[in-house]
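Sequence and structure are no longer studied apart. To make this concrete, we show below a single chain and its fold as tokens.
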Amino acid sequence: MTDSARKVRVDLGDRAYDIFVGPGLIAAAGGHLAPLLRRKRVAIVKSCEAKAATVAADERESGVRALLNLGHTFG
């Protein structure tokens, strides 16, 4: 993971914390919240596309998809 990706991850975690703590902290984020949410949206879309491709390629869960689902077993 690059330093930039780590920073985005930390910033997203901080913003999620802000949402639960109160709107005053969100306001303090200034113009940084929208760019972070856009990057998160792109990551979610790419993740869903990758999972859909894996499921389509292994409908019977006999190969790569079994590894994908193993993650659900452990968390």
The chain has a mean pLDDT of 71. The longest helix spans residues 33-57.
